[in-house]
Amino acid sequence: MTRSLFTGARIFDGTGAALAEADLTVEAGRIVEVGRGLDGDEVVDLTGKALLPGLFDCHVHVTVSHVDTWRLLQRPFSYQFFEAARNLEATLRAGVTSVRDAGGADLGVKQAVADGLVTGPRMQISIAILSQTGGHGDDWMPSGAHGSMFVTHPGAPSGVVDGPDAIRARVRELLRAGADVIKVCTSGGVLSPTDSWRHPQFAVEELTTMVATAAASGAWVMAHAQAAEGIKNAVRAGIRSIEHGVELDDEAVELMLSRGTWLVPTLVAPRGVLDAAAAGVDFPPVVVAKAREVLDIHRMSFQRAVAAGVRIAMGTDSGVVPHGRNLRELALMAEGGMKPEEVLAAATSSSAELLGVAADRGTLTPGRRADLLVIDGDPFDFERLPETVVAVYLDGVRVPAVGAPASG
Predict the structure, then answer these.
(1) Three-state DSSP state, 260
(2) pLDDT tens, 354-372?
C-alpha cells in the first residue's frame, strides 16, 4: 500500500498548539504519523508552506446562492440541486472539507457528494427548519403568498409546526428523511418580514419535546437563536448549539457555560444582508433595518462569549453570504477577541467536536482522516488566508482546481 509523505511543512495540528515544523504520512486515506525524519513512497514537498486540518463550516445553506426572494420565486424547482453542486465545489475549493447544512439540502444532495457524483465537503444535513406559525421559518407574506428560500418536496417536509405532539411527529419525519441534526428557530430573525428578531419563538415545552425526540434517535438539535430569551429557552431545553447568538446577555452566557452549549456565531451573516442590499437586492425596508440594528449588538455579544470562555465553532450562514468565501468569518472571529490559534481550533477540532466527528477528523493526529489544507503564507493572516490556499486534500487525495475563482 502506498504511503504519502508530506514533508517540510509548518504544521498546525488543530488542537490550538503553536505551529511546528514536522512531516506527516498518509496511508489508505488516514494519517499514520506526525514527526521529524519520516519517510514514504510518494513525497509532497511543502517546504515554506503551512499544513492544517481541513476546515469546518457548521452553518451553510448549499441549495441557496443568494437571498433575493423575487429571483428565487422565478427559479425552477430542480435548479436548486444544480446550484448546490456548484456551491459545494466552491466551498471545498476554499479549504472547507466538512459542512453542516442548516436547511435546504436533502438526503439526495448528501448522498451525491458521498458517492462522488458531486465534488464537495463531507456533509451533515438538517433538511428543513422547524418554525412556529408566524416564526422565522414561516414564509407567509403579507399578500398571503408564500415566498421561501426552501421548497417543500418529498425529500423535505414543511418545517412549520406547532405544539408538542405535532413537533414530535415532524422531528420523526425529518429523521426518517435522513436528517443528521434538527434545526429550529427559537427567535425571530433578520430576513423574515413578519417577526421581530427580539421575540422568542416556541415554548420551552415544545423545544424540550424536539430535543427528547431527536435524542431518542441519537441526534442533536441546533437553534437559530438571536434574541436573549430565545437563546436561553434553547439552552434550558438542552439544545446543543446556538446559531448566531446576536443578543447574549450575562444570564445567557452563564447558562451556556453551565450546560456546555456551543456558539456558532456567523458574524459575517448580517454583513452579507447589507452587502446584498447595497448590490441592489430589493429587501423589505424592515429587513435592512434589522440587519443594521443587529450588527454592533452581535459583535459585542460575541466578544462577551469569547471573554467568558463559551465553546465556539465556526459557521458562516453561506447562502446568505456567497459560497466559497467562508474564510471571511475567521478574521471577524479574531477581531472579536479570539487568539489566532483559537480561531483555527474553532474551525477544526472544536467544530469536529460539535458535530460529533472528532474521532474521525478535525486534527492532524494518527488515525484521523487525511483531510488537509495547504497554505502558502501565514495561516494566521486571516485577511489574506483565502488567497493563500494552494491545495486541499480529502482522504489524502488532492482536490482538483483549487485556486480557480470561487463562485459568488
Answers:
(1) coil
(2) 999 999 999 999 999 999 9
Cell of 192: 423574515
Closest by Cα among 229, 220, 224, 226 to 252: 229
CB 173 within 8 A of CB 127: no
Q: 318 in the Ramachandran plot: left (φ > 0), alpha (ψ -120 to 50) or beta?
A: beta
E strand or H helix at 129, and its extent?
strand 129-130
Tell me if 369 is assigned to some domain: yes
Please tell me the pTM assigned to this model: 0.92
Sorted by sequence, the CB contacts under 8 Å of residue 317 that are 6+ apart come out as 59, 60, 61, 102, 244, 266, 268, 269, 272
Asked whether residue 325 falls in the same domain as residue 368, the answer is no
CA–CA gap between residue 77 and residue 107 (Å, rounded): 16
What's the residue count for the chain?
Answer: 408
Q: Do 377 and 299 share a domain, yes or no? A: no
Same domain (yes/no): 339, 378: no
Domain assignment present for 403: no
408 lies in a domain? no
Report d(CA 285, CA 274) in Å as an integer: 11
CATH of the domain at 393: 2.30.40.10
Q: Comparing C-alpha atoms, which of 2, 93, 90, 102 is closest to residue 58? A: 102
Angle at 176 between CA 170 and CA 179, to 5 degrees: 85
- Residue 406 falls inside a structural domain: no
Domain range for 371: 3-52+362-398
Q: What is the pLDDT of residues 253-283, one digit of tens each?
A: 999 999 999 999 999 998 888 888 888 877 7
Catalytic site positions: 183, 317
Domain count, the chain: 2
> Grid coordinates in use for 356?
460529533
